[in-house]
Amino acid sequence: MILEMKVPSPGESITEVEIATWLVEDGDYVEKDQPIAEVDSDKATLELPAEESGIITLKAEEGDAVAVGAVVCLIDMDAAKPEGNDAPKTATKQAPKEEASTPKQEAATYATGTASPAAKKILAEKGIEAASISGTGKAGRITKNDAENAVPSMGTMPADGTRNTERKKLSMLRRKVAERLVSVKNETAMLTTFNEVNMQPIFDLRSKYKEEFKEKHGVGLGFMSFFTLAVVRALQLYPDVNSMIDGDFQVKHDFQDISIAVSGPKGLMVPVIRNAEKLSFRGVEDDVKRLAIRARDGQITIDEMTGGTFTITNGGVFGSMLSTPIINPPQSGILGMHNIVNRPMAVDGKVVIQPIMYVALSYDHRIIDGRESVGFLVAVKEALENPIELLMDNDVKKALEL
Asked: What percent of the chain has pLDDT over 90?
């Protein structure tokens, strides 16, 4: 019996995916639930498991965009499993590359080094002489693809210099991210306001309680719990920042679902901490750790990245001192954290060295005015500089569940 494997729906509103990588080859024997492919949607990269055991026949190429519900492979469930540990391999994926690296030598003809009409036009636009490049077409003819990949000379290169280029199609996820970023810049009235935070009070708390916190809860006491709870408090004080535009309406939320930007193998992922207003320091740290591990391992789901009301991004982990983060639509605000640097600061009339972080709030000025944006960021600053009173209700042990 032949099973037709179809593309499952990875989430609401997604109508097609792209075959990013086949993890098996045509003619392989696959086991049920064995990952056979990685597919990109416009929101995440997901693994496609085999629905049954048998010999697989691939019906789509890597890079193909296929509709949800389309057949991507066949599995012959009646085929016997090959003897031994490994299934026999058919023609390997490396064969075309090996063949390409050692092309058949053809005798030079009048066509050698001659550009096709399309190639000639492209070369003229680039100001490149046809004689300066080697053609890959029949008998050395210069093709349109050769012309598109040709790079104008910038002068004499050293004997051991290289001028290789690589042309790689962007993944569906990266294309969608690019599209959304441009859309945000074009369709919102985005502004950014800045402030600085003296991190010494948080440094003191972490230094005193981090070992006890980790020993009891099995998770570190990081900066993200302080920032998340400071943001929750500020959103409650300034609800316009926790809203979004829907046509001619402003939609406000009475809950705080905080999106946390984390780096994954396929790029930036933004999983959501649900109802952060109900979480303790331990609850936030548990969620941050869980979501970061799932993003790192490529297991994050679309549902886990959908529905946030506000985003926090930390460029400081990469060494960024200051940035203007881009809003994560349809949200109206995003807080950017940055690196912590010892700087001179006036404290009680004296200049002292303190660990300072610059913070940035990008916001949609269509629904968030200057008073709300500046007030929100000041509220975040106040909570971070006075966490015992404003985030812990003057009871550190209780707040940290120690």
From this structure: 51
Q: pLDDT tens, 227-275?
A: 999 999 999 999 999 999 998 999 999 999 999 988 776 667 889 999 9
Give pTM, 2 decimals: 0.67
Query: SS3 for 23-76, per residue?
Result: CCCCCCEECCCCEEEEEECCCCEEEEECCCCEEEEECCCCCCEEECCCEEEEEE
Are 337 and 223 within 8 A, CB to CB?
yes
In order of start, what are the domains of the chain with their CATH numbers?
2-101 (2.40.50.100), 103-153+165-170 (4.10.320.10), 188-399 (3.30.559.10)
Residues 6+ apart with CB under 8 A from 332: 240, 241, 243, 244, 245, 363, 364, 367, 368
Q: What are phi and psi of 145, to 5 degrees?
A: -65, -40
Which positions are annotated as active-site residues? Answer: 365, 369
Cα–Cα distance measured from residue 285 to residue 288, given in angstroms and rounded to the nearest whole number: 5
